[in-house]
Amino acid sequence: MIAEVRVDRTGTRRRGLSVRLRFTLSYAGFLMLAGVVLLGIVWFMLRNPSGDSLVGHDIGPVPGRFLIARKYFPAAGALLLLLLVFGLAGGWLLSGRMLAPLARITGAARMAAAGSLSHRIALAGREDEFRECADAFDTMLARLEAHVAEQQRFAANASHELRTPLAITRTLLDVARNDPTRDGGELDDRLRAVNTRAIELTEALLLLSRADQRAFARTPVDLSLIAEEAAETLLPLAEKRGITMHTSGRITPALGSPALLLQLTTNLLHNAIVHNIPEHGTVHIHTTTGPQAVTLTVENTGDALTPDLLATLTEPFRRGTDRIHTDQAGVGLGLAIVKSIANAHDGSLTLTPRPEGGLRVTVRLPSAAAHPGPG
User: Do 241 and 281 form a contact (C-beta atoms < 8 A)?
Assistant: First the structure.
């Protein structure tokens, strides 16, 4: 049977009995029911005509039924009234004590709905259902607070990054208007470069949003072929910077979006090429397969990385040690996109500094062999 929710004309729920009151009435009702059953059993034994009862042959003749009823029912009524008062009072006190943690959880939920995510319930006491609910709610609030803070930082950084090319464009146009004799070809080249960078940033933001929403279909894909394709694409950039790339690995059946996994691999290789030593640097790309997951590993030579710096590399708009703006620096979303794509594929991203300098990036993804598709 489908329960109906009654609403008034304004569309809000009508307020019913509180849980505490319902618990109190239920407690008192069960106590009254137990009293009635017990008194009924006593009455049945008293009115037994055989005389084989609690009142009978052991202490004298059995009194008449009318006399028994006249003395029994007033006493039974008084007892039921006492049970009712005791049930209501005891049920109200017990329910208030038992539901006190629920009131704290409700208060914390209302504060969170009002926008305060820093409040925590921190319910003390032994482990029970309320304690588990409170701990789960605190964990949810902590994750929400961290997510909101991350989104605020992301929005601020995105606004700054998008404002930069627009400000440069306006400056170039102002200079061209104030200096009619300026070479138009140079201005056109610079405007095109700024416009290209703005487009790349916008496309990166859209890609990051797509990965976060998991708006893609999953199909079997060979991760080793993806790595080879990305290496061939970035080979001219590596040769220009004097970087040697090595690709190894057998067939690596992964499960995911080929386009997104290609973007993930391309971002990793681009990052490994750009953030490398000036001359004779190397980049190693290796794929391996396991029973449950496949692994893509990208290692590069480079400067030694501190733990503090390593912890921030996957944040949006971080470009190594500085916010550099060279032609090969990208838009600062490379590793952020890699992390987002890996998470969207139920995978993981691990960054490990190499003792001799440089970075080792490991991406673990579900194996197509362990998660076969339909058909």
Answer: yes
**Position 54 pLDDT exceeds 70:** no
> Which whole number is the average pLDDT over 147-169?
71
66: exposed, middle or buried (C-beta count within 10 Å: 0-12, 13-18, 19+)?
A: exposed
DSSP 3-state of 229: helix
Statement: residue 200 has pLDDT above 80: no
To the nearest 10°, report the CA torsion of 44, 47, 50, 52.
Answer: 70
Residues 74-116: pLDDT tens digits? 777 787 888 888 888 877 887 777 777 888 888 888 888 887 8
Residue 253 has pLDDT above 80, yes or no: yes
Residues 342/325, Cβ–Cβ less than 8 Å: no
Is the per-residue pLDDT at 43 higher than 60? yes
Q: Do residues 136 and 123 make contact, with C-beta atoms less than 8 angstroms apart?
A: no
Closest CA to 358 of 278, 273, 286, 299: 299
Instruction: Output the pLDDT for position 201.
Output: 72
SS3 328: coil
Torsion of CA 183, 185, 188, 192, to 10 degrees: -140
> Do you know the residue count of the chain?
375
The SS3 assignment for 36 reads helix
DSSP 3: P
CA distances from 280 to 127, 270, 357 (A): 60, 16, 14
Using an 8 Å Cβ cutoff, are 295 and 256 in contact? no
At residue 268, the 3 state secondary structure works out as: helix
Q: Per-residue pLDDT tens for 116-145? A: 888 888 878 777 787 888 888 888 888 888
Give me the residue label for tokens 């208030």.
96
Residue 139 token pair: 């964990």
Count Cβ atoms below 10 Å from residue 152 Cβ, excluding itself. Answer: 10
* 221-237 mean pLDDT: 92
Pairing of the two strands 243-249 and 281-289:
parallel
- Work out the angle between the directed axes of helices 258-274 and 184-213 (0-180°, nearest 10): 130
Residues 6 or more apart whose CB falls under 8 angstroms from that of 117 comprise 141, 144, 145, 148
Alpha carbon distance 237, 243 (integer Å): 8
Query: What is the residue whose two structure tokens read 């979303």?
Result: 333
